[in-house]
Specification:
The protein is an alpha+beta fold. The chain contains 3 helices and 5 strands. It has one domain. Helices cover 41% and strands 33% of the residues. It has a 5-stranded mixed beta barrel.
Amino acid sequence: MEYVLLFVGLALAFFGFSFLMKYIKLRLISVKAVGRVVDNHKMEATAKMPSGWAAVADYEAAGQRVRGTAALPMSQKYAKGYNIDLFWNKSNPKSFVPVAFTRAMLLYSLLFPIGMALAVWGITMFF
């Protein structure tokens, strides 16, 4: 039993830690803004990314009005004219990530402390 808790805990901790690092990196290289959805594009699946819908939105980035495309596909379309909270990339202002996606990343990062607690519990069962 202790091996199961230890290995499941370590796996969850690793998974949660990777999402936490992705979230921190995203926050460091991006700026928050509000945009208006003007279109949706169908994104085909690749080796690293599933298929889905990429919103196209107008927003202000670095003092200029920009029309950008979501860097990550979402499962649903956004309605045209919908105001969307987003993080645009400082090095590529025409690329953004919806705030809703970052909230999911932050939620998954909670697996890190849960996994660590399970791993510690598994270790204490050895003694």
